[in-house]
Amino acid sequence: MKVVVIGQKWLGERALEMVLNSSHDVVKVIAPEGDRLNTNATSKGLAVSIPPSHRAPIIASDVPDCDVIICAHAHVKLAPSALMKPRHGAIGYHPSLMPLYRGKNAIVDALKEHQKIIGGSVYLLDDGWDTGPVLLQDWSFVQDGDDAASIWRRVLAPMGLELLERAVSHLEAFGHWPEAQMQRT
Asked: What radius of gyration, in Å, describes the C-alpha atoms of the chain?
């Protein structure tokens, strides 16, 4: 499959490695300048671009022909024209049990409400923020002393990588996305 990876930080870099280890063709990486995903992709000779400002969406001309877009810690908006480019659409990971806690403060919001269970969702991106159909979910218990950073590192970031990998593997094996599923970690 031809894949575009959009993201940053640990999750973006690990998603790139997951795609490359699966022998897919990474046709472009979109990551902030100086970010570890950008640096890793550049060192591998991949086509890399910097996302537009946080206010400007990624548009169709930013996305080459591809089968799927994978967003991993992306924090960017894809214009409807960009979402139409990949044959199988675009997926993203969000660190909540969607539809709960949408937005960039999902983990903090869940902890503020003293949630004892936290989780993550892989979903099909649409023209809203964290509003597309959920494909896969997983969950874990919140431990005493967890804060947003510790639970991200301990549970949610690795969970996101695993869920993205499961979704891509399902697409590769069956030619379509999985139906929504949930399991305990």
From this structure: 16
Is residue 164 included in any domain, yes or no? yes
Range of the domain at 104: 2-175
Instruction: Decide: residue 16, CB within 10 A, 0-12 exposed, 13-18 middle, 19+ buried.
Output: buried
**pLDDT-derived band of residue 104, with 50, 70 and 90 as boundaries?**
confident
11's tokens: 């999750």
Give the pLDDT confidence of 27-58 residue by residue, as tens digits: 999 999 999 999 999 999 999 999 987 678 99
Query: pLDDT tens, 5-29?
Result: 999 999 999 999 999 999 899 999 9
Angle at the Cα of 119 (from 118 to 125), degrees rounded to 5? 140
Q: In 3-state terms, what secondary structure has residue 107?
A: helix
Count of C-beta atoms within a 10 Å radius of residue 135 = 21
The pLDDT assigned to 180 comes to: 52
- On whether residue 134 sits in a domain, the answer given is yes
Q: Count the alpha carbons within 13 Å of 81 in the hemisphere toward its beta carbon.
A: 8
Residue 184, domain member (yes or no) = no
What is the domain count for the chain?
1
Q: Is 156 helix (H, G, I), strand (E, B) or coil?
A: helix
